[in-house]
Amino acid sequence: MIWDSGRAGAGAGHEDASRGASGLLHRRSFLLGSAAGLGALGLGGCATSDGMSLAEASALYGPVPTEKFPIPAVDVSKVDPKYYRRTVRYDTKEAPGTIVVDPKNYYVYRIEEGGTATRYGANVGRDGFRWSGDAYVGRKSEWATWTPPKEMIRRQPETAKYARGMPGGLDNPLGARTLHLYQNGAYTLYTIYASSDAESIGSGITSGCVGLLSQDMIHLYDRTPVKTKVVVLPA
């Protein structure tokens, strides 16, 4: 799900919070919360090319101090403005509430009423590890435990210390929220998860899972019940 030194792994590199999560670890997967205080950026009211001022983006992606593990602000200067959360026109036959993942363009959409969608910037699977098809949210987790799979431990022995699980927290690769994707009653090992790595948005770095900025993931998670349909488009 997350990253390894080869930047991603196959389906086994995903997580399962109830059975023990699994993921692929990269130098960025510990999500050190490096985002700086946005007030120091002196962003003022300068507009981005995507119509949202940097001040507005700073407010949208500000700190979340009320969480179990307080989430720092996103350094929005490290995110291409086209990946900021926004409402867009989106014509589809899918019902409102459906989640559509567009890995080719690094977006996740939540279908709304009236031909619109909430659009989030995302990181997605790297080449060779992307998948497509229909799934559904079979389970939801907050601050999930992460456990590397045996395949990853063999590939990266330094992760063996987490063989019994890495507790939830800011350093945990799964972050604050996780949507676990299922097909026909079986867990696919793919997830939509929270990332504190601003520079990962708009990149293909995972083993097929999809990451949103923590603030975006909380926004999506709170509006997504179990059994929600998820459509993953071809890359």
From TrEMBL:
GO molecular function (one): peptidoglycan L,D-transpeptidase activity
Gene Ontology annotations for the cellular component aspect, listed alphabetically: extracellular region
Pfam families: YkuD
Pathway stated in the Swiss-Prot or TrEMBL entry: Cell wall biogenesis; peptidoglycan biosynthesis
Single GO biological process annotation from the record: peptidoglycan-protein cross-linking
Keyword Cell membrane attributed: no
SUPFAM superfamilies: L,D-transpeptidase catalytic domain-like
Domain L,D-TPase catalytic: 97-233
Record's signal peptide: none
Entry keyword set: Cell shape, Cell wall biogenesis/degradation, Glycosyltransferase, Hydrolase, Peptidoglycan synthesis, Transferase
Gene3D superfamilies reported for this sequence: L,D-transpeptidase catalytic domain-like
Entry similarity comment: Belongs to the YkuD family.
UniProt-listed PANTHER family: L,D-TRANSPEPTIDASE (PTHR30582), L,D-TRANSPEPTIDASE ERFK_SRFK-RELATED (PTHR30582:SF24)
Name of the molecule in the record: L,D-transpeptidase
